[in-house]
C-alpha cells in the first residue's frame, strides 16, 4: 500500500470516527517451519505455529500465519503483517523452526533454503535484523518477538568460517528503538532448545499455558514460562528475555474480540529427511506390485503385555469418540479449494491419520535414496496422488489406496535402509545414560528409536487432548523401563519392538 493510498484511508477513517479503533489494533506474525528439504526436518514447528496463531487470535490479535514457508511465503506473510501492524498498540512475532547465527547476525531459515556458503544467506534466508528493522518502521507501541528457533545449527559444517556452533546470537536492544520492546528466546543465547516429544516444543507448551491469562503482566508470564521449561527439561533449557517495556503490559486483557487467522498460501513441496547418499544395490522400479492390495500393513513385532493392551483399548475408545473439533488434520491444509478426495480426508480422522503416516513414510524413503532416485520417487508420488483422487469421496477406496502406498514405500525403503546411517531421535552429545549411549552407537537401535519417535507423534496427534497427557505419561514410564536394560542390545531391541507394536496397533 503506497503512501497516497494509506493517507487516503487514514482520512476516510478519521472522518468516520474509526481512526482510534485502527490505532488500537493488535497484530501478530506467526511462522512455523519444519518440512526442511536440505537440512534436518523438525516435527513440531508447524504445530507450534498453528496453536500459537489460534491462541493469539483468541486474545484479540489479527494473526498472519505461515506454516512450512519458503522464502517467498515468509516475505508475503511479513508484508501482510506489516500492513496490520502500522501504528498498532502491540505486535507479536513468533517464529518456530531452524535459525542460524553467522558473525553475530541471526537468520530464520525457510524450508526451501539450500545454503552452500555465507553468500547464500542474504538471498535464501530471512534476516532477523531486517525483520526487526521493518517492524520498527511500523512504529507499534509494544513489540514482542518470540523465537523458538534455537535448535542446533544445521549449517555449521557449511558455514565453518562464520557460523555459531550452537543456537542463536544474543540480541542487544538499540537505544533508539528499545522502548516498548521485548525479545524472548526459547533458551539462553548460544544454547540449544529441544523440539519436544509431544505436539509442541517445551517452550511453546509453556507459552500456551500462560499466554491467555487475563491481566498477567508479561514479565511475570515469562517468569512462569521459564520455570515450566526448566522443570520439563530437567534444567536442560532456560528461556532468556531481553526487554525494555515501560510500565506493566499484559498480552491478554479481561475482554477481547477473537480475531480470525489469515493463512499465507504455500506451494506444496516435498518434505525431505536429510540422509547421507547411499548406493542402491540394484535399480529400483517404482511400480507397485500387483498383489499389493492384498498386503496388509500390520506391525511385525510381538504384542505388548496385557496392561498395555488395556490402556490401548482406552485410547482407541477415546479416539472413536472424538468430536469434529478434535479431528486429526492431514498433512495438507483443509482450507481453500479441495477436490472430493481431499475433502473426504479432511472430514475423516482415520483417513487423515493414514495421510500423515504415509507422508512420514514417504519422507523417510525419499531421504534414504540417492539423489538420482529421489526425482523418480517424487514423480511416482505425484502419479499415485492422481490415482488416489480417482476415488472421489469413496472412503473405502481412499483407505485402500493409502494402504497400498504404505506397502509400496516400505518395500522401497527395505532395499536401501541397511546402508543408511540413521541418528536416534535425541542428540548424542552431553550426558547420556548407558542405554542412550548404546542406542547412539548401534545403527539398528538408532533406527528403531527414530521409528518409535515417529509412531509416538503420529499416535499422539490422533488423540483428543484429554488422552494425550495419558499417552505422554505412558511413554515416560516406558522410557524408564527401557533404561533398565543398560547397554544390553538385545534387551533394548525387545523393548523397542514391543513399544512399536503397542503404538502401531491402533493405526
Automatic annotation (TrEMBL):
Organism annotation: Labrys miyagiensis
State which residue ranges cross the membrane: none
Is Signal there in the keyword field? yes
Q: What is this protein called?
A: Caspase family p20 domain-containing protein
InterPro entries xref list: Caspase-like_dom_sf, Caspase-related_regulators, Pept_C14_caspase, Pept_C14_p20
Keywords tagged on the record: Signal
Instruction: List each copy of the Caspase family p20 domain by range.
Output: 24-154
Q: Which residues form the signal peptide?
A: 1-23
The lineage's top-level taxon is Bacteria
Q: Where is this region: Disordered?
A: 294-334
Amino acid at each position: 500500500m503506497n503512501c497516497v493510498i494509506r493517507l487516503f484511508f487514514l482520512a476516510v477513517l478519521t472522518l468516520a470516527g474509526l481512526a482510534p479503533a485502527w490505532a488500537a489494533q493488535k497484530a501478530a506474525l506467526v511462522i512455523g517451519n519444519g518440512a526442511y528439504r536440505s537440512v534436518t526436518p523438525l516435527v513440531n514447528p508447524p504445530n507450534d505455529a498453528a496453536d500459537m496463531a489460534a491462541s493469539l487470535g483468541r486474545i484479540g490479535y489479527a494473526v498472519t500465519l505461515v506454516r512450512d514457508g519458503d522464502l517467498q511465503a515468509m516475505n508475503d506473510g511479513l508484508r501482510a503483517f506489516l500492513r496490520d501492524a502500522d501504528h498498532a498498540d502491540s505486535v507479536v512475532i513468533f517464529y518456530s523452526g531452524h535459525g542460524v547465527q553467522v558473525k553475530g547476525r541471526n537468520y530464520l531459515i525457510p524450508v526451501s533454503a539450500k545454503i552452500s556458503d555465507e553468500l547464500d544467506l542474504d538471498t535464501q534466508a530471512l534476516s532477523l535484523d531486517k525483520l526487526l528493522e521493518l517492524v520498527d518502521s511500523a512504529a507499534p507501541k509494544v513489540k514482542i518477538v518470540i523465537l523458538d528457533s534455537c535448535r542446533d545449527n544445521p549449517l555449521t559444517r557449511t558455514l565453518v568460517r562464520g557460523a555459531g556452533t550452537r543456537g542463536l546470537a544474543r540480541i542487544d536492544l538499540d537505544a533508539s528503538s528499545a522502548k516498548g520492546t521485548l525479545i524472548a528466546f526459547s533458551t539462553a543465547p548460544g544454547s540449544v532448545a529441544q523440539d519436544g516429544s509431544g505436539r509442541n516444543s517445551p517452550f511453546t507448551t509453556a507459552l500456551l499455558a500462560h499466554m491467555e491469562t487475563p491481566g498477567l503482566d508479561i514479565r511475570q508470564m515469562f517468569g512462569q514460562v521459564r520455570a515450566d521449561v526448566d522443570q520439563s527439561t530437567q534444567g536442560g533449557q532456560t528461556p532468556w528475555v531481553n526487554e525494555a517495556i515501560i510500565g506493566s503490559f499484559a498480552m491478554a486483557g479481561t475482554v477481547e474480540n477473537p480475531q480470525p487467522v489469515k493463512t499465507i498460501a504455500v506451494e506444496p513441496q516435498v518434505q525431505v529427511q536429510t540422509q547421507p547418499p547411499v548406493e542402491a544395490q540394484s535399480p529400483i522400479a517404482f511400480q507397485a506390485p500387483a498383489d499389493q492390495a492384498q498386503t496388509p500393513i500390520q506391525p511385525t513385532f510381538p504384542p505388548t503385555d496385557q496392561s498395555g493392551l488395556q490402556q490401548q483399548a482406552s485410547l482407541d475408545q477415546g479416539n472413536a469418540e472424538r468430536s469434529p473439533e478434535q479431528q486429526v488434520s492431514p498433512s495438507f491444509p483443509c482450507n481453500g479449494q479441495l477436490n472430493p478426495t481431499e475433502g473426504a480426508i479432511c472430514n475423516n480422522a482415520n483417513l487423515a491419520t493414514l495421510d500423515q503416516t504415509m507422508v512420514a513414510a514417504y519422507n523417510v524413503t525419499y531421504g534414504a535414496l540417492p539423489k538420482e532416485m529421489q526425482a523418480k520417487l517424487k514423480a511416482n508420488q505425484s502419479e499415485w496422488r492422481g490415482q488416489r483422487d480417482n476415488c472421489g469421496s469413496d472412503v473405502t477406496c481412499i483407505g485402500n489406496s493409502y494402504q497400498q502406498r504404505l506397502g509400496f514405500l516400505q518395500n522401497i525403503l527395505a532395499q536401501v535402509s541397511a546402508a543408511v546411517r540413521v541418528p536416534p531421535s535425541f542428540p548424542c552429545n552431553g550426558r547420556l545414560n548407558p542405554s542412550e549411549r548404546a542406542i547412539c552407537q548401534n545403527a539398528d537401535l538408532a533406527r528403531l528409536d527414530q521409528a518409535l519417535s515417529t509412531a509416538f507423534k503420529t499416535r499422539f496427534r490422533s488423540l483428543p487432548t484429554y488422552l494425550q497427557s495419558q499417552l505422554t505419561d505412558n511413554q515416560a514410564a516406558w522410557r524408564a523401563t527401557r533404561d533398565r536394560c543398560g547397554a544390553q542390545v538385545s534387551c533394548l531391541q525387545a523393548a523397542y519392538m514391543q513399544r512399536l507394536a503397542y503404538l502401531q496397533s491402533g493405526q
